[in-house]
Amino acid sequence: MEYYVKSVVPMIESNYDNFTMVEKTIADFFIQNRKKMDFSAKSISEKLYVSEASLSRFAKKCGYRGYREFVYQYEETFVEKQESMTGNTRMILNAYQELLNKTYSLVDEAQIARIGRYLNQSGRVFVCGRGSSGLTAEEMELRFMRIGVDIDSIKDTDLMRMQAVFQDSNSLVFGISISGEKEDVLYLLREAHRRGAKTVILTAKNRGIFEEFCDEIVLLPSLRHLNHGNVISPQFPILVMLDIMYSYYVGQDKFAKELLHDNTLRALEEGERKRREVIE
């Protein structure tokens, strides 16, 4: 299996929907390419039948100052993939490793630290999502509740819209949407932000409109161009990022939060013991 490697591919994927048709042609090449070659602007423009100016605009949309900086990063981190895989186990493990590499490339530690401060400063936390993202929202609620966070998860669309009305400057709202297109999730974030709440979206799509109503845009790796991505749970990239956030939050006051966690576990164990005594 591969080790963690910084890659430009996750940034291309997160901005894919913002590209023009020409830029998508360039993006598809860099996402799908598996061979080392001459990546100079002249060579790639001739290969793809695009102008060097298009390459420059593409690189800037990916967050680089120009195509030269983009290619430098691409060449430095380019790792040839092994095409021959022996068995399903190796295939799955390599897919997960690729996903971890993408997470490593996208995670912004300064951003995660800011979110940790939001969690400390907010009186009430809400996390919402639909489908598999909703299940992840429930997991986040259970984990952070055990260390003293006043947090609720919301999966129901009507509840999302109703809860939007009650948000204020004392609230922190997380919206989880891999596609970035779940209207009920976006509605809650938009209305909560309008009422003064801090808002955070976890998504694989970096849409320009998010900056209007999200204080933090946490980018997740996309499964779309992942080798064998169809066999990977869509919850996995979200859970990895939540684990990172959880670790940072606990680290801000490790002793107190571990004590709270232990106390909640003891309370659960005591409840289970009493239930067994009643049954016996």
TrEMBL record:
| Transmembrane portions of the chain | none
Specify the SIS domain's residue ranges: 115-255
Q: Which GO terms describe its molecular function?
A: carbohydrate derivative binding; DNA binding; DNA-binding transcription factor activity
The HTH rpiR-type domain covers 6-81
Q: Which GO terms describe its biological process?
A: carbohydrate derivative metabolic process
Q: Which residues form a coiled coil?
A: none
Q: Which Gene3D superfamilies match?
A: Glucose-6-phosphate isomerase like protein, domain 1 (3.40.50.10490), Winged helix-like DNA-binding domain superfamily/Winged helix DNA-binding domain (1.10.10.10)
Q: Which Pfam families does UniProt cross-reference here?
A: HTH_6 (PF01418), SIS (PF01380)
Q: What is this protein called?
A: MurR/RpiR family transcriptional regulator
From which organism does this entry originate?
Schaedlerella arabinosiphila
